[in-house]
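Per reviewer request, we include the raw input and output of the structure prediction for the construct analysed in the revised manuscript.
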Amino acid sequence: MKIVAICGAGIGSSGILKVNAERVLHKLGIEAEVTAADIASVRLAASDAQIILTSAEFVDAIGATNADVIVVVNYFDQQELSDKLLAALG
């Protein structure tokens, strides 16, 4: 499974989201490739992704995709990430 974390520049927020998603997935025993990307390269970065993690401000810019787009409110809240990832996967 491929998960892409998206933010404006692909460095700060998406990096934090990537690391926290990896921690949550590890705790859940789910294997996935998690990458961070900027909104400008979302089409390429997420072309084969099953899940896109982002904030509400970038949802419209993502456009049409086959991936489940998960809006994360608090990037540091591992329970929120866990609940939303499990809902998307199950």
